[in-house]
Amino acid sequence: MAIAELSPSYPRARVHPSSLSSRFSNPLLSRRRFIPLRPSRPNGVLCSIAPNQIQVPVATPADSAGKKECFGVFCTTYDLKAEEKTKSWKSLINIAVSGAAGMISNHLLFKLASGEVFGYDQPIALKLLGSERSFQALEGVAMELEDSLYPLLREVSIGIDPYEVFQDVEWALLIGAKPRGPGMERAGLLDINGQIFAEQGKALNAVASRNAKVLVVGNPCNTNALICMKNAPNIPAKNFHALTRLDENRAKCQLALKAGVFYDKVSNVTIWGNHSTTQVPDFLNAKIDGRPLKEVINDIKWLEEEFTNIIQNRGGVLIKKWGRSSAASTAVSIADAIKSLITPTPEGDWFSSGVYTNGNPYGIAEDIVFSMPCRSQGDGDYELVKDVLIDDFLLKRLRKTEAELLAEKRCVGHLTGEGNAYCDLPEDTMLPGEM
Amino acid sequence: MAIAELSPSYPRARVHPSSLSSRFSNPLLSRRRFIPLRPSRPNGVLCSIAPNQIQVPVATPADSAGKKECFGVFCTTYDLKAEEKTKSWKSLINIAVSGAAGMISNHLLFKLASGEVFGYDQPIALKLLGSERSFQALEGVAMELEDSLYPLLREVSIGIDPYEVFQDVEWALLIGAKPRGPGMERAGLLDINGQIFAEQGKALNAVASRNAKVLVVGNPCNTNALICMKNAPNIPAKNFHALTRLDENRAKCQLALKAGVFYDKVSNVTIWGNHSTTQVPDFLNAKIDGRPLKEVINDIKWLEEEFTNIIQNRGGVLIKKWGRSSAASTAVSIADAIKSLITPTPEGDWFSSGVYTNGNPYGIAEDIVFSMPCRSQGDGDYELVKDVLIDDFLLKRLRKTEAELLAEKRCVGHLTGEGNAYCDLPEDTMLPGEM
């Protein structure tokens, strides 16, 4: 039991009574009976301050009204509006992170807490979703977040039930996914992870903010995002993203290397399609220092035959060198993906994100999650970029990654409400070095 | 050979000719013959762009003059003064990080690159020091830094020779140290790591900026900092720091928990003395919301008997929960330590750092590195805080940690130039969960 194992630094851990009762009184939670439940954990939410140990009662402020779950020092109350330093801050936002005990999250959570992603006037609550197996590690992560004393990080809670963790979240960063077992191919992974994302979609639908933004990182991320979206009909389909930003960043770096320029000179790079080996890094529309890339890099053979492979092999090469997968740069790319939605896109540029295809101007099949070029006004929303070139070479590759995503969708019909699944994925297209 | 193992994304790796020749022409490097050399690695510095692969010649700017070592995309040239976005930036600074392939660095390097530590108008060059064994992992780290596209990160080089890596550095963050072997106590660790820090001190003395700031994290960090300082007589003794900021941060969090307030209410917490179990977290001078802490926390028994243990056991508890040592929060505390030196200390507050005791106003023995309360005007320098209370309880504990540091100093006499070592450390005082 986690309670018995609590650190001596926590005087006495206990379930917050109001949290316990809320599990059974919230009518939304009655939907849980239809969901394959993982083992229940009655004491999954901890609060390490008992009322009689708080020596200085601080007036309970509006900010903490309705706060039911907390970890350690994040159980203490505060009033942002009462203080000179913080009264101009925005209202607190809730951010859920799944796979919170994993290595990518271990980088990302500290970035979020620092203010680097959402801004230095944006206080945040982090809601960490883990598993039964990772629960102690989650406590360790929460302890390290405590010890970091980030002023903007006002609340941290940990849990293993998405219906609790996703309550009122404005952002859900879905990183957790089962890794591939030995011999497992993409189809097997689609099924096993699809079930997780179907459940998480239902939970988001039930308890998250009605305009929650959802970024899926766990693989296969495009189809996981589709499954999640289909199970959350009350959240706009446009709000679901699959992460292809690491691929975009890697593509920009390789184009910079090839052109012999610093990477800040490379813009307008689109990753099209699936986050798999069928993905299409687009050099046709890319620019170097504002000029069409092909005017600068004239090695067409390299662009057509080597460039894509280099990007796709990057993760595998990194694992060989570094001994583990690329957690730090993945976390950076997640931060980039979020920042691209909450800050205006620079004039003339765009960013890639795996988004819902309905209404796209490129002729891509509807009803899949496909990475495309996006622009944002910084309000969390985006629009697809209209003026992009598509030549025969690009089109042929778009068709291939589109076909793969349509096949992946057929594999998960049982999870999207479209009926029976029929799985005919022709080959294993997992990227080297990915889970 | 690292060259043969280079990733396919690097068209052709080669030693930069000017870098090779500089190894033998720099008169400072002739001192190397007196230093116990680790195995030489002639191709330790890589540049993955061959001149004939750079298709767009960019005018070589002043910024990159004299640049001899580089990794991947960081070999490309740039001119910060030529561009609207960057021309108001400060001049590039060189930051060396040892133990660069380790987990603490894996968090810290990305923080440095993001601008979070040195500011968003401060371009940086990262010079990564690793070992023969970790060289491939260093390449992996450099690849992830490339893929992160941080605009402020202009140069990255990797190496295993401190005389190359420390060239012209303004900051040296010395994280790397040998971990304790089975059965090894503090005395053994002092000797084995002391030799590393003696060598690195000599290298800093020979090639670093004359006003370089040196922050020692590798344990036993106080005495390692002393050894490093003694071997670098040309760098002001005041510039050497041993990290006790993680202890300070943990102390603040525990005091906040105990007081039932958010951690931003806790100030004026000093960690005195050694980064070991004799360290003295000072609750006498600490404040909660501007009031003396003891007016708020009246559980004197807890303060005197439990508080220090809780902080010291924190690392051990974290390892049990999280399965590894606290890399993320350590990196945060390193960032905090640096920021405390380059931004003015808030009015009335202070921060802890292990610094040279000569001239201290507390009656601490001279000629050791002892953590004390510091204030900075934000210029990289600091002054010791004069108006602190020292009562009998605090004094007794200061004497104990002082005695330990004097004993540690006797253990490393052979490394500080004071003659033969005489080691009489009475007990093992390594902090739980530390290397």
UniProtKB/TrEMBL annotation, chains A, B:
Enzyme Commission code: 1.1.1.82
PROSITE patterns (UniProt xref): MDH
Keyword check for Plastid: yes
Keyword tags: Chloroplast, Disulfide bond, NADP, Oxidoreductase, Plastid, Transit peptide
GO biological process, one term: malate metabolic process
Residues annotated as domain Lactate/malate dehydrogenase C-terminal: 244-412
Gene3D superfamilies from the UniProt entry: Lactate dehydrogenase/glycoside hydrolase, family 4, C-terminal, NAD(P)-binding Rossmann-like Domain
Pfam families: Ldh_1_C (PF02866), Ldh_1_N (PF00056)
Keyword Cytoplasm: no
Domain Lactate/malate dehydrogenase N-terminal stretches: 94-241
GO MF term (any one): L-malate dehydrogenase (NADP+) activity
Reaction it catalyzes: (S)-malate + NADP(+) = oxaloacetate + NADPH + H(+)
One Gene Ontology term, aspect cellular component: chloroplast
Disordered: region residues: 1-22
Broad class of enzyme this protein falls into: oxidoreductase
Annotated localization: Plastid, Chloroplast
Description of how the protein assembles with itself and partners: Homodimer.
Reported function: The chloroplastic, NADP-dependent form is essential for the photosynthesis C4 cycle, which allows plants to circumvent the problem of photorespiration. In C4 plants, NADP-MDH activity acts to convert oxaloacetate to malate in chloroplasts of mesophyll cells for transport to the bundle sheath cells.
Protein name per UniProt: malate dehydrogenase (NADP(+))
Record organism: Dioscorea cayennensis subsp. rotundata (White Guinea yam)
Lineage of the species this protein comes from: Eukaryota, Viridiplantae, Streptophyta, Embryophyta, Tracheophyta
